[in-house]
Amino acid sequence: MSEPLVAIRGLAVDFGGAPALRGIDLAIAPGEALGLVGESGCGKSVTWLAALGLLPGRARVSGSVRLAGEEILGAAPAVLDRVRGGRVAMIFQDPASSLNPVHRIGRQVAEALGLHRGLRGVAARAEARRLLDQVGIPDAGRRLDAYPHELSGGQNQRVMIAMALAGQPELLVADEPTTALDVTIQAQILELLGALRRETGMALVLISHDLGVVAETCERVAVMYAGRIVEEARVARLFAAPTHPYTQGLLGALPPLDGPRRPLSAIPGSVPEPNGMPPGCAFAPRCPHAAAACALGVPEAVAVEPDHAAACLRAVRELLPA
Amino acid sequence: MRKAPLLEAMGLTRRYAMRRGFLGRPVEVRAVDGVSLTLERGRTLGLVGESGCGKSTTGRLVLGLEMPDAGSVAFEGQPMPAPGTPPWRAMRARMQMVFQDPLGALDRRMAIGAQIAEPLEIHGIGARRAERMERVAALLRDVGLRPDQAVRYPHELSGGQRQRAVLARALATDPALLVCDEPISALDVSIQAQVMNLLVELQSRLGTAILFVSHDLRAVRQVSHRVAVMYLGRIVEEGEPDAVLHDPAHPYAQALVSAIPHPGRGQRRILLQGDPPNPADRPSGCAFHPRCPVAVAICAKEDPMLKPRPGDGRRVACHVAQGEVPAPSVGRSAAGLNRPAQISKAA
């Protein structure tokens, strides 16, 4: 890979003794679309909140996050202010609570334009109108004067995306951007994110619990479990040859669209509590293949193939001749 | 003589008055607009649609938690008694509801065992306390919890365990009908699979009929024997899950199916323009026509009926799918897709 846009090394986060992230290594190339998949509490959102310095003070963060070679973890507020919303933008699950309900949307988009591009007055309004147009809001000129409550959930998410584009970001982090939306609206937003990426060349990190959403939007996927990345591969490869038992479990838990209906291969049990992390591999207590060796140490990610890594002892064993 | 189906709803209609703005005139919103459905014993009917389509209200009407403004519900061949009366209460023991958010459905200050025992006390099941405790233990085992977990409080359980506790409580009175309103939406993927497996297994063991309300077509296919697709208060298509999923007849069902994100699926999505319309501003004719890629002139004027389609008998409410009008050419439908999206005025 060429020089990555973002390189995360050994990122760890700890909330008062409870580990939320336990060493994340992740690289995003310029223009790439990466999916981050996992269940609630696995640390997929915390990774980006930590990287951008958005976690509350009691969180202990360590490791390294480099943006185009420059360290941004623990950087000065002035540096972070240029990065956040500028070079790296983030959108969240619930657009209605991310927008200010008492300001017109045009003013909110213009505020982002003022902060990141120094645009004011008529120029800012014209650019805000262009952005609303770009994200597919019909009648953008008049919609500038609408309040968030006058728009639907899908339209509000489009406004959030317009605000994120205001800083002309090199990377857009979308944290469950369609989870609060209906399926037909979800399809519209995913289509829009793909089109914007083609137009602007920005990289995209799509955080989702839905493997299907990631499969349709991203080129590469990282699967997270209990604060670590357990498997990483190109999308087609991950679905064709999932290696980590957790990934296999997630795929097996998805109801199929055709074929006979049989019980789903549900993963037994539930995610471990941060204070009660099992020794060794965190997935071992739920894993159908767990062996004594799994409790001895946290497995490191190993390359199963070029561009495909899994953090499982079995992945290594499968590489060895029988 | 034909045995009456377990549940038969005819022409259910529920209207609400909604005020627009602080001093606005109240407008009538038809949340459910003439829904008829039948559910046989031990079977599952999946009710799918997007938010605001009236699927949850339909579930509440069926249970008698709300009274319909028009239409009727018959349970085991008997009309629904007036709410609050002793016969109504007796009937309510035979039908139970499971909600989306298990933490909200459980009382945080009560151990789950006591909560599961509560319906037994209310409906006078089990003469002695020991008998009831035995039943609670059996129910906990039924849903995959351990009897010793009866003393746990909701916050001490995981999301999946809480939903199991809610299910155990719903099953306490041995109901013939379970209305599950988005029972898995608040759960993680791996836990969703556990709960779906549990529902199917309990049904095969206890013979409970299930009305499964969900926005998730995949989940509906997994658990249902029949599926009904709702749009703006009406059923627009009904049939076997595989038939509806693999060959949807109604253009809305087609869009809904094509919007299911699926790993490794190459086919193009049908993108609908705009948002579901506001129920207070119901479009004329077919309510779907402003977003429909194949709508023709008649669709804006005449309301299509839900009826069996000639040929395969699929129940669908669409002039085009019924073959009453020729389907428009591809060019026409492409032009239709480029129409500006509608903006919902819902407050």
Number of domains of chain A: 2
Amount of helix of chain B: 25-40%
Q: What is the number of strand segments of chain A?
A: 12
Per DSSP, the total helix count of chain A is: 12
Largest interface: A-B, 52 and 48 residues
Mean pLDDT of chain A: 91
Q: Count every helix of chain B, treating DSSP H or I runs of 4 or more residues as helices.
A: 11
Please tell me the overall pLDDT of chain B. 87
Name the CATH homologous superfamily of the largest domain in chain A. Answer: P-loop containing nucleotide triphosphate hydrolases
3D shape of chain B: globular
What fold name stands as the CATH topology of the largest domain in chain A?
A: Rossmann fold
Strand order of the largest sheet of chain B: 6-7-8-3-9-10-12-11
The count of strands of chain B amounts to 12
| Helix percentage of chain A | 25-40%
Low-pLDDT regions of chain B: 330-347
Protein name (chain A): Peptide/nickel transport system ATP-binding protein
Family (chain A): Belongs to the ABC transporter superfamily.
GO molecular function (chain A): ATP binding; ATP hydrolysis activity
Pfam families (chain A): ABC_tran, oligo_HPY
